[in-house]
């Protein structure tokens, strides 16, 4: 979870160590969590599922029906499609009310803006054609495009994505547009919040190597769940825990907190996983001892290309020693690296288990009356 030691050599790793074996990754998605978890697990990762939010469809909501009727009674000149699931849900709800074809006709006559590739795909699947899509998938970019194009006296239908967007609605209205907000679904807290709070603890304790986000709302939900632990959580995300977001819109709230974020070139789950496959191994500590290459991953060590799973205690000792190769660390110093409530006897046990797991004589040296070290 820490950075590479300067001058260390990275060995060629044998499968499955070349992928995500040895890493623990948090998944905050709800709707496609099983798909994302499956992609990660197929590459060897240990996955912590912690849905930050859940999507609540509102097909029977009077608000959505009223917005749909407003679009039919006074057809919008411009329609902004924010999400693929929102577009599909809107048409499905209209189908249930017997309004699908009239709505489709209204949409086909409007200047259709699809905010991203998923929204564009949903538009085309519906037999419609978008007129413009932003490069960066940001709502601010869309509003800038529309206001530059001119919206004075026009009606804009704004399909919301889980929550109201007053800043964009107000910007369009300030430019002279009449805005119809179309709420197709809402974000709601997870049914069971315990996994999310557990993930907060794992992040602050740096016991996960990465966390994935597929919506900006999930980022906000995680920060809310952190409460008083928000600062330690952000510190962990700025240093040891990799934040991986499906796209720039999702990443924006973290970047506002100065968290470095990794995003794929395309907003796809498979691309998000490839980003983790590429970046996590590059963050690993690698040391060379007595002709053996040892790479530290979240809960495992790769020894000469072979993955060795380690329990938390031995892994903590190895990480502390590897971060200061050649330096003698006392039992008291190593005790600070172990899980809480451990004692100095636990240090001795962790060292013994670490030696047995590595099976490399002389790699973990005892310095009499002083402590332990990794020789250089």
TrEMBL record:
Organism: Actinoplanes ianthinogenes
Keyword Acyltransferase: no
Protein name: Uroporphyrinogen-III synthase
Gene3D superfamilies (UniProt xref): 3.40.50.10090, Winged helix-like DNA-binding domain superfamily/Winged helix DNA-binding domain (1.10.10.10)
Sequence ranges assigned to domain OmpR/PhoB-type in this UniProt record: 284-376
Pfam family, one: HEM4
UniProt superkingdom: Bacteria
DNA-binding region: 284-376
Coiled-coil regions listed: none
